[in-house]
């Protein structure tokens, strides 16, 4: 067994290392896009004490990370060339439920061998993708306008429309500023639809992995008072055109796949995204 070095997460420089691994391993069988890691880490303030995160390196290069929360859930990314590390990561995490992409079969086999069971039923997320070659132009009903975020002066309004769409939400102006400071956030990929009164009512934030030329949508939302008017669609298309101009060739998004929450998936499918994978969760056998 090679000499892997484990280090505990200390701050944004370590997130950057996790993003480097996500970028190096990006493919149809990878669960993580570097933008999703930034959003998850920074969308709220005050969460760090809830999390335990560690990275594993070999010869100074990241080969795995694991991120456990206090409710007993584990997310991880492991370079398949270093599968031997899986046992150490699972021992580090304790008795957590573990979520993988369904395509991560070798990792799933390790979990089954260690006595985990795949959960059936309940909420789960699907991964949907779209090629950006044939992207329609955004269009809006009368009275609405579409634009990219300018800079930090938009953080308060941007957080407010997010909170309206996801209510209740812990996203605030302060946490949004944290998102805007994260690599690789770019205001020109963060799009808003405004009402006639100039209030933001829908949004789409896109993160671009320039190396893999793939954009991820995270997050998308519309104020409940303005839904089913094509506003999320317009925000998504505005942001994706901008991403394409910056080199993106394809886009990915995650949405609930179960029938208890169909609206987001239906929105992405109506924009041409298609399901290609889903998350699966494994629980230690003696856990309810
Ligand atoms: C999902 C969400 C962003 C959709 O916003 P929206 O502005 O209403 O979406 P659009 O008007 O652009 O919808 C486009 C198409 O998507 C589909 N769609 C959207 N909402 C739907 C719903 N509740 N049920 C079924 N289909 C739906 C329809 O095909 C719709 O076209 P139609 O209205 O002509 O039938 C919005 O409901 C929302 O903010 N939800 C809470 C936050 C969220 O879940 N965000 C996504 C996860 S990050």
From TrEMBL:
<dbReference type="Pfam" id="PF00583">
    <property type="entry name" value="Acetyltransf_1"/>
</dbReference>
<protein>
    <recommendedName>
        <fullName>N-acetyltransferase domain-containing protein</fullName>
    </recommendedName>
</protein>
<dbReference type="InterPro" id="IPR016181">
    <property type="entry name" value="Acyl_CoA_acyltransferase"/>
</dbReference>
<dbReference type="InterPro" id="IPR000182">
    <property type="entry name" value="GNAT_dom"/>
</dbReference>
<feature type="domain" description="N-acetyltransferase">
    <location>
        <begin position="144"/>
        <end position="288"/>
    </location>
</feature>
